[in-house]
Amino acid sequence: MSKKHILPIVMAMGVATTIPQANAATTVTIGTVNNGDMVRMQSFTAEFEKSHPDIKLEWVVLEENVLRQRLTTDIATKGGQFDVMTIGMYEAPIWGKQGWLTPMDNLPADYDLEDIFPAVKGGLSADGTLYALPFYAESSMTYYRKDLFEQAGLSMPEQPTWDEVKGFAQTLHKPDEGQYGICLRGKAGWGENMALLTTMSNAFGARWFDENWKPEFNGAEWNNTVSFYVDLLGTYGPPGASSNGFNENLALFNSGKCAMWMDATVAGAFVTDKSQSNVADNVGFALAPKQVTTKGAGWLWSWALAIPQSSDAKDAAKTFTTWATSKEYSQLVAATSGIEKVPPGTRASTYANPEYMAAAPFAAKTLESMNKADANDSTLKPSPYVGVQFAAIPEFQSIATQVGKLVSGALAGSMTVDQALKSAQNITSREMKRARYYK
Amino acid sequence: MLSLKQRRRAQTVVLGTIAWLVALIIFFPIFWMILTSFKTEIDAFATPPQLFFTPTLENYTSINERSDYFHFAWNSVVVSFGSTIIGMLIAVPAAYSMAFFETKRTKSTLLWMLSTKMLPPVGVLVPIYLLFKDTGMLDTKLGLVIIYTLINLPIMVWMAYTYFKEIPKDILEAARMDGATLFQEIWKVLLPMSKGGLASTVLLSLILCWNEAFWSLNLTASQAAPLTALIASYSSPEGLFWAKLSAVSTLACAPILVFGWISQKQLVRGLSFGAVK
Questions:
Q1: How far apart are CA B31 and CA B19, in angstroms?
Q2: Which residues of B touch A68 (CB under 8 A)?
Q3: Would the CA dihedral through A97, A98, A102, A106 be positive or negative?
Q4: d(CA A211, CA A224)
Q5: What is the pLDDT of residue B1?
Q6: Do residues A188 and A407 touch, judged by C-beta distance below 8 A?
Q7: What's the rounded Cα separation, in Å, for the pair B43 and B47?
Q8: CA-CA distance, B201 to B266, in Å (whole number)?
Q9: A246 vs B221: CB contact, 8 Å cut-off?
Q10: What is the ipTM metric for this complex?
């Protein structure tokens, strides 16, 4: 073929592929995050399409922050690119109130909505209407090395205080041997260090806003929290802790470098998985630490499936979301991938199954943590917002990301705790005033 | 005292060593990415990082099972080549008129064109998203071709302009005196003379389109998503993913690396020709 013939052919092929092809089945486009449970759900596409031949599934898998930006742009402009959106407890009530999501009512009788944990349902609702069906849910808890505790003659209480945690960290911190007393999130971000720090501040009796939406970073409670956090992680944490997020800490813990780690309950499946953890047989579980209160000490989060109002395949989307969050789906996962791989934290029936409880050593503490978390009552003093490790208001993402950077800066030593909190107070006050929460 | 020959030899050795060192430093991240793609997730996260390990193909197998690589790669090829071809069809005549029929506003027009590159893309995301939505171009390859052409056009015009400026006007005038039409003047005289420079413009445009992530992530979903969207699907804030991410990045880079390798002769010639050096 001569060269002059190649260009038109390539161009014609390009044009041909841009023409949409007719398809008899309804296509449901699902935007989701990349994590083990979601990837597993994607692997069951063939099973779903076999049992629902009139529906075809298309997947858009993206990193969490990219997905959040992508979905927000689409739903706010009524783009209609997605029929099912994977959203969290932060978005569900805000988007639901805006009228952007389809209410999850008239669910099939065998769906058994009552089986879903009330706290999870509450977190995905606005004004009593459920806007998303939970795929999996998580709280936070304490992971510790049973072997190191035993060698040092220490014993981890059912729910330690942060002071006790500091004492343990002090004893077990041996940096010369590559062993650090504690690993915690230090990377800046509203879903990174601020998730941990907000639960920690709840335990220390602090809150983001008072009843009039005024920020409280200038109070003693926040000062105690951040000072304690910076001292604990700065003294007994790994080097460069201010850039560690979930994955970095997971890698450190799995390679045996952390004596303790406080993070999401979902990590239970990773730290006990022998294919990726060197310490799988030596992991102990306790509730997330308390301090002056147990309220809001462990967080509450759920990845859930929602249907945007802009979808033109709402019925097919609902068929898919009810299937993916059903007991039938859990049974499919148990039969094909193992019972310990069933999406955790959403259904009471999962935890009533003795086989699951036996197969997942972290299940009992996950259940206990989930039962303790309450998004509507997470602070010692009354607060006007919903959410344990966040406040479900549109401004929170931006504010908490900025505050997260300040706290991370204090941890890295680029500013003092007082400077960080003063700036946090100024930034938050300005943003809340601008959003007209108060004058 | 060193003779002139010895000094030159020493100079060559020193310069050669520096060149090799710089090349190795530039290549190291790519080397590490390829190496990591053959590790298990636990090896990829190991501290200190491991240079020696038991290689595995499990990441590539898992990507093959989970994603349709060729669907994403084909989208990248269509979008990159499509926008480069359209871009060149516009850039060459534009640069020709600016280089050979310069007016008092040519320089400021060129600067204005380049200034559009200084706007952060996120600033125009919502208007462009709405335009695409209303014209039905969301998640289409045609939409991406148009947006890539528009974002790369200023650089393509600028580069072509600087290459054309190196060509003496007299040669084109001579062609005209011999009775060449405008098309013949460009096709038979100008383009062969600036082949090297234009080849490097084409390659640069292809690389920019291939690597573009912001628009491809925001304007596509399942149908038109290119390889950059495939890479983004393997990153996760919860769970170990470095090895798989490295494998998918290696797969995404491979076609353009091979293309660059094949056309490096033209690229080097192009970069040492004209004002963009």
A1: 17
A2: none
A3: positive
A4: 21
A5: 64
A6: yes
A7: 9
A8: 10
A9: no
A10: 0.79
Q: How far is B86 from chain A (nearest CA, A)?
A: 10
Task: Single out the residue of B234, B239, B242 nearest to residue A271, CA to CA.
Answer: B239
Do the domain assignments include residue B45? Answer: no
pLDDT band at A17 (very low <50, low <70, confident <90, very high): very low
What number of other Cβ atoms are within 10 A of residue A27's Cβ? Answer: 15
Beta bridge partners of A221: none
Q: Is the pLDDT of residue A14 over 50?
A: no
Question: How far apart (Å, rounded) are the C-alpha atoms in residues A85 and A55?
Answer: 17
CA distances from A37 to A83, A343, A366, B98 (A): 20, 6, 16, 57
Architecture of the domain defined by A20-138+300-359: 3-Layer(aba) Sandwich (3.40)
User: Coil, helix or strand for A406?
Assistant: helix
Distance from CA of A358 to the nearest CA of B (A): 23
| Residue A215 contacts residue A428 (beta carbons within 8 Å) | yes
Q: What is the pLDDT of residue A247?
A: 83
Sorted by sequence, the CB contacts under 8 Å of residue B205 that are 6+ apart come out as B83, B84, B87, B88, B152, B155, B156
**What average pLDDT does the segment A110-133 reach?**
93
Assess if residue B84 is contained within a domain: yes
Task: Quote the CA–CA distance of A218 and A417 in Å, as a whole number.
Answer: 11
Global pTM reads 0.83
Query: What is the end-to-end Cα distance of chain A in Å, rounded?
Result: 74
Fold assignment, A140-299+377-434: D-Maltodextrin-Binding Protein; domain 2 (3.40.190)
Q: Determine how many CB atoms are found less than 10 A away from the CB of residue A388.
A: 29
- Residue A58, strand partner residues: A29
Interatomic CA distance for residues A204 and A222, integer angstroms: 8
Q: In whole angstroms, what is the distance from residue A250 CA to residue A144 CA?
A: 12
Residue A309, SS3 per DSSP: coil
Q: Are A94 and A393 in contact (CB under 8 A)?
A: yes
Residue among B85, B129, B229 minimizing CB distance to A73: B129
Query: What's the confidence (pLDDT) of residue B272?
Result: 61
Contact between A252 and A333 (Cβ < 8 Å): no
Each residue's pLDDT tens digit, A41-61: 999 999 999 999 999 999 999
Distance from chain centroid for Cα A25: 34
Reply yes or no on whether the pLDDT at A20 is more than 50. no
Residue B232's CATH number: 1.10.3720.10
List the single best residue of B222, B228, B242, B248 to mutate versus A (max A Cβ within 10 A).
Answer: B222
Q: What is the DSSP string of A328-354?
A: HHHHHHHHHH-GGGSPPSSBHHHHT-H
Is residue A146 within 8 A of residue A353, CB to CB? The reply is no
Domain holding B144, by residue range, is 68-271
Determine the distance in angstroms separating the CA of A300 from the nearest CA of chain B, rounded to an integer.
Answer: 15
Which residue among B129, B217, B221 places its CB closest to the CB of A29? B221
Query: Does residue B6 form part of some domain?
Result: no
Q: Would you say residue B24 lies in a domain? A: no
Phi-psi region of A205 (alpha: psi -120 to 50; beta: other; left: phi over 0): left
Q: Which of A45, A61, A43 is closest to A53 using CA atoms?
A: A45
Residue A116 structure tokens:
């879903």
Contact A139, A372 (CB under 8 A): yes
Q: Is the pLDDT of residue A3 over 50?
A: no
Nearest to A39 among B66, B141, B225 (CB): B66
Question: Which tokens go with B239?
Answer: 């769970």
The pair of structure tokens assigned to A217 is 């970073």
- For chain A, which residues make up each domain, given as ranges? 20-138+300-359, 140-299+377-434
